[in-house]
Model the fold of this input.
Amino acid sequence: MRILICEDNVLLREGLQRLLIEADHEVVAALPDTRGLGEAVRDQRPDLVILDVRLPPTFTDEGIRAALALRKHWQQLPILVLSQYVEERYATDLIAQSAGALGYLLKDRVADVDEFLDSIDEVGSGGTVLDPEVVSQLLGRRQRDSRLDELTPREREVLELMAEGRSNGAIAKHMFISEGSVEKHISQVFQKLGLQHGASGNRRVLAVLAFLGVEMPEDADDAGGGSA
Done:
């Protein structure tokens, strides 16, 4: 996979490069800030962009704003955002305005190499990965969605694991059930949430947004029907 890194911390940036290269990925660019980011994406055509949330010069929301800007030009570009802490407003903005593959992880997750590389693969292949701590905090502040009352406890558990970005196989392993059973649960979740084939956006992402109480903007780009 061709990966572009935008991270101001030189030790973390170089550590990510080494880790990714050892995992047989190609790092096409490693930038210390967002200057030239758009040009690098245009010229290098990466398969995935890894961005820090806080970047120079203000160390506030440069990474999030850069991610949203990339989405406007490359709607399906997989983006993985790294953050030192859970920043709910930034996470919510990015999730709500992103139709393509997305990851939002705390930097502590990088220390678990296997888990981090799994997240890279998941986002790079078009999936969504949210740090469990991000999910937990967003759930604590979510608005009540009455459609969720229709879900069985098993379906809610599947949806929560989906919100963490787990694949059907990973959900099956965690719940000690078959992948076929997971697919049936997900189909029921889609049906009860009113997410039919042809709905605007990826149904898996829309289901997660409903679970987290994040409102999808009316002008969200159509990312295709999405399957279970």
Summary: DSSP finds ten helices and six strands in the chain. The radius of gyration is 17 Å.
